[in-house]
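Checked the freezer inventory, then went back to the computational side. Two predictions to log before the end of the day. The first one is the construct we discussed on Monday; recording sequence and C-alpha cells without edits.
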Amino acid sequence: MLTIAKIAIEDDGQNEEQRDFVYGNYLDEVLIMIDSSGDDHYYAHDHLFSPVALIADDGTVEER
C-alpha cells in the first residue's frame, strides 16, 4: 500500500476539501491532483519539469 502525504489542499472556503495535490522532488513539480470525488488527475511535464498537460484516470487529456 502506498502512503501519500498531503502537501497542499484546496478547500471551498467552508472547510470542505475540494482537491489534494501530490508534489515530486522539484519545486512546484505537481504530480497528481485528487478531486473531492476521488478521481485522480496526472500532470505531464516537459524537460524543464513544467506542467504541459493534465491527464485523467482513463488517459484522456483534460487540459494543455
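The second is the one RB wanted added to the comparison set:
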Amino acid sequence: MRTGILGGTFNPVHMGHVLLADAAARELRLDRTLLIPASIPPHKQAPELAADRHRLAMCKLAVGQIRGGQVSDLELRRGGKSYTCRTLEMLKEQYPADTLYLICGGDMFLTLQDWKRPETIFQLAVICAAARQGIAHAQMQAQQTRLEAMGARIQLLEVSLPPWSSTDIRQRIGAGQPVNGMLPEPVAEYILTNRLYQK
C-alpha cells in the first residue's frame, strides 16, 4: 500500500490543501491519503488556532474531495508538539508494510533540514513537495539536491497551487470579506455556522 500524509494546523483546511493532497494522490497513485491536523505546531506560532474538534471536523468535511482521502486524529490524541518524525514512526508501526509519502508545500520543503530528527523523516518517508507561488523552481531543485545528499528520497509534484494561505482566509473572514472558492463549500458553511475566526 502507498500511504500519503499531509499534516498541518488546517486552521482552516482550504482548497490549496485539497488540491495538493489530491494531486499527490493521483500523481503518485496513492492508495490512501491521510489529513492529520496538528495538536501544537512546532514550526510556527498559532495564536488564532481553532479548537481541535473544529479543525478535525473541517478536515472530515474536506477529505471527500481527495482521492482515497481519510482523516487521522493521531496527533490530536497524542497531544503536545506535533513532530513529524514521531508521527511517521507511529504510522510505520500502524502500517508496517506501507510506503509512506510525506506531502508538503514548498515553504515547508525548504526548511525540512531544520525539523526535529530530519534523518528519521528521510528514512521513513518519501518527501513529495509542490511549490507555492513565489517559490522558484530553481529553489525547489536546489533543495532537492541538498536533501538527497542527506539521504532523502524526493519527488517534486507538478501542481499549480493557489496563492492564499490559512492566515489570509482567517483575516478575510475576520474582516467580513468573501472567501468564495478559497474553501471547500462544506468547510465554509461550517465556519459560518460555528462563527469561527470572526472578530
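For RB: The longest strand covers residues 2-8. The chain has one domain: 2-194. Let me know if you want it refolded.
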